[in-house]
Amino acid sequence: MKMDKNTLANIGDLSPYRILIVEDELKLLEHLAQIMREEGHSPFTCQSYRELESILVVPTKRFEIVILDRLLHGRDSADLIEKIKTDLPDTKIIILSAINSVSEKASLLDKGADDYMAKPFSSEELAARIRALLRRSEPSLTFGNIVLNSHDRTMKVGTLEVPLPNKEFVLLRTLISNPGKIYGKVFLYEKVWEMSAEVESNAVETMVNKLRRRLIDAGATVHIKNSRNAGYWIEE
Hints:
There is one protein chain. This protein has 236 residues and is an alpha/beta fold. The chain folds into 2 domains: 5-137, Response regulator (Rossmann fold); 141-235, Arc Repressor Mutant, subunit A, CATH 1.10.10.10. 40% of the residues lie in helices and 23% in strands. It is built from 9 helices and 13 strands. It has helices at residues 5-9, 26-38, 49-56, 81-87, 102-111, 123-137, 166-177, 185-193, 203-218; strands spanning 18-22, 42-46, 65-69, 71-72, 75-76, 92-97, 115-118, 141-143, 146-149, 154-157, 160-163, 223-227, 231-235. A 5-stranded parallel β-sheet has the order 2-1-3-6-7, with helices on both faces. A 4-stranded antiparallel β-sheet has the order 8-9-10-11, with helices on one face. Helix 7 crosses helix 9. The longest helix is centred in the C-terminal third of the chain and has 16 residues, at 203-218. Mean pLDDT is 84; it is low at 1-15.
């Protein structure tokens, strides 16, 4: 999927794992995107150093993985690793490079890359490494009698395992990451839908009510509270 403003605005409506593929060879780019689709991920594509720079300044983007080509039309993408890690601190980076030396791998890993694969590469191995990075990037969260599994987007209450729609998962994860912290409606709207809340919307209220009912039905000991003028928080 080619990145543009409309694409970025709608990222929150897609499948849980968003993979940004940065590669200047079109055929390889399309091949990588197909691998990610076959794995059930949502691939987004970028073909140049400048385009990647522009993506990094958009405040609504979120990616679990960036697959980063070492050279982009002669420009060294390693120069942007630190910026990616600063702007997207939870994102994992896997480098694809035609350079296959120990010193090269060590240098890129020291700069902040999380994994490194030399070209040509095995599609099966790349998919396995992506799965491994996803397991590392999203640990489970526990609050009260809830275990929130980030890998498969489920909420476990006792022996009951409840799959959560992506937006409800992101909302619950946000709340239980800081129990007792009050989050305003605008902040939650931007966090869950990943777009600016320019007008008043009841989307957050509707989503909270659905999640409250799901927690009650599952027998959770935690509750989502709200104050009309302040926002929402979770507590036992």
